[in-house]
Amino acid sequence: MEEILNEGTRIEEETKREQDAVEDLTKRKENVRLDANKQEEELKRLQGDFSQGESTFKEVEGELHRLRIHQSSLADMEGRFDGYEEGVRAIMMSQETSLKEGIIGLLTDIVEVDPSYETALEAALGHKLQSLLVKGKGEALRARQYLKEGGLG
Questions:
Q1: Burial 113-150 (b: 16+ CB within 10 A, else e)
Q2: DSSP assignment letter at 131
Q3: In angstroms, rounded to a whole number, what is the distance separating the alpha carbons of residues 87 and 71?
């Protein structure tokens, strides 16, 4: 009989240990489930952030492309001296090195002013900003003669 009691006690103890183990595993499973839910929420938030960042990136990339095209267009215009008077354009685009050697540049390229005064400067000087700066009187006369001979302005 004692053997049966001992066997019963042992079975009860083993059952208790297994119940404790099941309880422990159930708690761990619940903690893992809660952790997984938090991770899933964080993943959704990060996906939203990523999507928003990707959208912003595409907008900025489009704007950059537009600005590059605009810059290229402006550089082409500047290279052709579009918007300048005919005489200025003819001299600046001339292939004559002796003529070009006497040219320092355009007044508009030389004058530096605080951006807040640019409009006022443009209003005050107007088309004179297109004036050519030359090294001396001889160069100015040579440029004038070049324009006169070519009927260029």
A1: eeeeeeeeeeeeeeeebbebebeeeebeebbeebbeee
A2: P
A3: 25
Contact predicate 142/99, CB 8 Å:
yes
Q: Which residue(s) pair with 103 in the sheet?
A: 134
pLDDT tens across 82-118, in order?
A: 889 999 999 999 999 889 899 999 999 999 999 999 9
Contact, 110 vs 125, CB < 8 A? no
Query: Is the dihedral angle over the CA atoms 62, 64, 70, 72 positive or is it negative?
Result: negative
Biggest CA-to-CA distance, the chain:
136
pTM above 0.70, yes or no: no
- Strand ranges in 22-129 using DSSP code E only, listed in sequence order: 103-106
Measure the CA–CA gap between 116 and 73, rounded to whole angstroms.
25
